[in-house]
Write a structure and sequence with these properties.
This protein has about 70 residues and is mainly alpha-helical. About 65% of the residues lie in helices and about 0% in strands. It contains two helices and no strands.
Length: about 70
């Protein structure tokens, strides 16, 4: 069983990987880099949901919202 700290560290590592591919995509507009970034983003979303105990709404907001509103 993993601890919350181990889960958080795994999330941070995935975010670092995702940011690398995002930067690659914006520098080159390479489709492979975009697909990798999006795949990692989905993995991160799943990991965060698991970290929060499976409750997708634990931080509030509309559960159908898929983009950050600024």
């Amino acid at each position: 069983m993993t601890t919350k700290l181990e889960q958080a560290e795994a999330i941070i590592t995935k975010v670092e990987q995702m940011r690398k591919w995002q930067k690659e995509y914006f520098a080159t507009r390479d489709g492979l880099a975009l697909r990798k970034a999006k795949d990692l983003e989905k993995q991160i979303d799943t990991m965060i949901t698991a970290y929060r105990g499976g409750n997708i709404n634990s931080i509030g907001g509309d559960p159908r919202q898929t983009t950050l509103e600024l």
